[in-house]
Amino acid sequence: MAVSGGGAAAAALALTLLPLFCCCVSGAVHGSSASSALRRAVPRGGAGDGGLCEQMLLPLGYPCTEHTVETSDGFLLSLQHIPHGKNGVADNTGPPVFLQHGLFQGGDTWFVNSAEQSLGYILADNGFDVWIGNVRGTHWSKGHSTLTVHDKLFWDWSWQELAEYDLLAMLSYVYTVRQSKILYVGHSQGTIMGLAAFSLPEIAKMISSAALLCPITYLDHVSSRFVIRAVAMHLDQMLLTMGIHQLNFRSNMGVQILDSLCDDGHVDCSSLLSAITGENCCFNGSRIDYYLEYEPHPSSTKNLHHLFEMIRKGTFARYDYGLWGNLKRYGQLRPPPFDLSSIPESLRMWMGYGGLDELADVIDVDRTIKELRSTPELLYIGDYGHIDFVMSVKAKDDVYVDLMRFLRVNGSSLHSSY
């Protein structure tokens, strides 16, 4: 049931559950272990804090420049460019690699571990020309040509727009600057965006190959108890009906939502990260306070609704606006699916996924693989979870060595000296 297409039904649902929701929220004001770290964290990325380059890379001696790209619907997105490693030579630029973060994350996610453990630093130090994407609504991409973050319309998007507008704008910029096809690396939502975008010819033509960490298209087998509970509560529909369009877990409302899902005994949130993503074998919990200086980033409630639609319906399709809304927007009663079989066979892929991942389940990953025209190279790690692929202290050896082998093979044809 979609809020936008069935307003009366959604409103009835929200009115039915609203007293329970408000009771949970009011009872959670004092917080729990699930959100105590969020409450004490001092976030970066605000006004006067400087950009990602200034905060994370330049202090470590890495070259980094900030770029702004405008989407066709007016969003101003921040891109960072790291042309080479700390000890590299400026005129020896390697093949362009574009890194796309996941949900509630930003470009900082590729740099929050040490330079020896973080993929962004590792790629730069190994001769790649690194570009960092930041989607609309994140701390680094809060601008718009006419709107502000306080406007409802600023948050009127889901991952569909991130694929069709944000990726198009950012990749087009890199493609134009480098005059070269791009190596794409995405994690989690970055893979949803990527796989949807690669089915569109105007984007696929700019990509030579793609490495996907925890690839997601279908969400039929999500086993995260936290997510399952939120879906069952129709949290997404309640928030939309209540007029809450920005989902920011740093806000008082956001922290209270977390507590309302955790504090009644249905979900064990003693480790909030594990409750949401499943166990992670090699996540450095001692750095959690540092991670929380940068993450989580905001997203839109509409985006959450789109993801929850995928769980409820088992589809990899565009946003469902209801029968009449779909007819007006798409010319048909149901939202069109993104067709994985339309991704060019020539676009080579590599996928890394884990046995403990409760969001990118192995059954759903297998379904994705079967619908592609070409068979991707696969790296399966049985004891890895969803976050391990970007934050494991062992990922350099477990994941990135093989990922870089794939990128080197496919990047050599893009840059003759590499």
From TrEMBL:
This is Uncharacterized protein. It comes from the Eukaryota.
